């Protein structure tokens, strides 16, 4: 699972001047808003879904599907031949010049009727032959509606022995008598092989199970209730190709990646709406948005540590910051300062979190005192409410997030190193760059959204 560990995305603090006499500030506290949950949707991404299916898996599934009696012609009246064909031994499937080569050992029970007409009376003699042979078939493979379809052609039918029978006192070969039946048998067995491969190679259930698992929202951070949700838009596929001992099927998923802060989101995966679209090439570039999270408690703790005990002001007008507390209200960051000195009490500032791309820093823009705080300061400590003081405060409200960007990248890299959400499914990839996108505030944390470019492959290996 992806995890993003708390790294203070901190934006704050304070510098003051003082009054010559001690005043008590009783400003009203701007109560925090409930900004939960938070959802951020990004541009579509492409995830590669290469499917590798071993020919041994095809062979195994085909043998399970095609067993016992595979052909029967029990009407001897139409062509004087009755035939039953059984699979004698396991089918062998290999790659021959990019096509499927199937070797089918078989046993045949053939009855052939020989007759004459004498004085208007038909006289018949039925002979029975038990034959062992091997059928060789070659198949072209195509992908249609989630299934691997084949067009099979019987290339040869080799009997292990040439049957003979006594006709008018002579032993003569009868293979030529059986060959007319083989013509009928040829089309039947070709169809049987095609049907067996089609039924055994329906990979839709495997792919849909894997997609559902991939698209199930998973928790990146338990402490901050952050979730990553993948929502499929379309599924693409190229033609299946035989390479060495496996079928290779390049599939791709066009999707959106959403970051959700709060309760676990509902999955939007609907297997009934997944349609496979044929394409000639699959893009594998992704653009994903992930979240780096810092709680207000962590940010407040660090700021309190940085500023506690520092003295601000000039002459007899001085204050020290004893404690800093941060929270969210109406899209702004609230900075609560517990000050002691010429002015005592809590004062409140607000501002919008912004990001400086050049310095990789977060800062507060359009920073000002909360309205009630400003009114109180105008009456009791006007020097604190002056713009020059506020500017000094704003200049100190910066924090580098280089560490956050690197942490996010490292966590994403860990997710792309052979991560397996279920047996037979493996996620791999690489990152090319990582960029800061935007800041959002929730009722619990400061969330920095990061855009990641790179590649992701989800390999579905084998058929179960």
In terms of DSSP E residues, the strand content is over 45%
| Global mean pLDDT | 76
The CATH architecture of one domain can be named as Super Roll
Q: How would a crystallographer describe the biggest sheet? A: 11 strands, mixed
Report the CATH C-level class of one domain.
Alpha Beta
Task: Output the CATH topology of one domain.
Answer: Bactericidal permeability-increasing protein, domain 1
How many angstroms does the end-to-end distance come to? 25 Å
Structural class: alpha+beta
Question: DSSP helix count?
Answer: 9
What does this structure look like?
The chain has 464 residues and is α+β, with helices and mostly antiparallel strands. The chain has a domain at 55-200: Bactericidal permeability-increasing protein, domain 1 (Super Roll). Helices cover 22% and strands 52% of the residues. The protein has nine helices and 26 strands. It has helices spanning 55-65, 76-79, 175-200, 204-214, 296-307, 371-380, 382-385, 387-396, 402-415, and strands at residues 23-26, 38-41, 45-54, 69-73, 81-87, 92-96, 99-118, 121-144, 147-159, 164-167, 170-173, 218-221, 226-237, 241-243, 246-261, 276-278, 285-295, 311-314, 317-329, 332-341, 343-356, 361-369, 398-400, 419-422, 425-441, 445-461. The strands form four sheets. Strands 2, 3, 12, 13, 14, 15, 16, 17, 24, 25 and 26 form an eleven-stranded mixed β-sheet that branches. Strands 1, 18, 19, 20, 21, 22 and 23 form a seven-stranded mixed β-sheet that branches. The two termini are 25 Å apart. The relative contact order is 0.22. The model is unreliable at 1-21 (pLDDT under 50).
């Amino acid at each position: 699972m992806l995890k993003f560990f708390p790294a203070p995305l901190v934006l704050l603090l304070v510098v003051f001047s003082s009054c010559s006499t001690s005043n008590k500030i009783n400003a009203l506290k701007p109560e925090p808003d409930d900004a939960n949950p938070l959802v951020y949707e990004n541009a579509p991404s492409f995830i590669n879904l290469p499917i590798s299916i071993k020919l041994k898996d095809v062979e195994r599934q085909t043998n399970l599907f095609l067993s016992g009696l595979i052909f029967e012609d029990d009407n001897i009246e139409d062509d004087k031949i009755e035939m039953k064909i059984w699979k004698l031994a396991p089918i062998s499937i290999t790659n021959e010049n990019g096509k499927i080569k199937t070797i089918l050992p078989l046993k045949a029970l053939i009855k052939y009727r020989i007759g004459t007409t004498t004085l208007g009376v038909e006289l018949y003699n039925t002979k029975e032959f038990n034959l062992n042979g091997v059928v060789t078939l070659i198949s072209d493979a195509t992908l249609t509606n989630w299934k691997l379809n084949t067009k099979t052609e019987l290339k040869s039918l080799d009997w292990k022995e040439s049957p003979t029978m006594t006709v008018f006192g002579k032993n003569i070969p009868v293979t030529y008598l059986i060959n007319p039946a083989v013509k009928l048998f040829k089309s039947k067995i070709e169809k049987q092989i095609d049907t067996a491969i089609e039924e055994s190679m329906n990979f839709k259930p495997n792919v849909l199970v894997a997609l559902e698992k991939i698209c199930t929202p998973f928790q990146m951070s338990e402490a901050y209730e952050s979730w990553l949700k993948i929502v499929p838009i379309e599924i693409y596929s190229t033609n299946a190709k035989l390479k060495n001992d496996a079928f290779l099927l390049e599939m791709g998923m066009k999707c959106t990646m959403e970051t959700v802060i709060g309760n676990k989101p509902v999955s939007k995966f609907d297997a009934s709406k997944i349609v496979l679209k044929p394409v000639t090439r699959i893009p594998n570039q992704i653009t994903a948005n992930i979240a780096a999270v810092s709680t207000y408690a962590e940010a407040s703790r660090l700021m309190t540590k940085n500023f506690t005990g520092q003295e601000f002001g000039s002459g007899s007008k001085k204050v020290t910051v004893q404690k800093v507390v941060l929270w969210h209200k109406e899209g702004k960051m609230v900075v609560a300062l517990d000050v002691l000195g010429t002015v005592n009490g809590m004062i409140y500032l607000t501002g919008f979190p912004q990001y400086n791309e050049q310095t990789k820093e977060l800062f507060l823009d359009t920073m000002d005192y909360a309205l009630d705080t400003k009114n109180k300061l105008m009456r009791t400590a006007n020097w604190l409410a002056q713009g020059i003081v506020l500017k000094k405060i704003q200049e100190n409200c910066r924090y580098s997030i280089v560490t956050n960007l690197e942490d996010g990248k490292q966590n994403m890299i860990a997710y792309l190193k052979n991560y397996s959400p279920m047996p037979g499914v493996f996620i791999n990839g690489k990152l090319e760059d990582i960029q800061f996108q935007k800041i959002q505030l929730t009722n619990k944390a400061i969330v920095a959204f990061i855009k990641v470019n790179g590649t992701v492959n989800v390999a579905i290996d084998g058929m179960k």
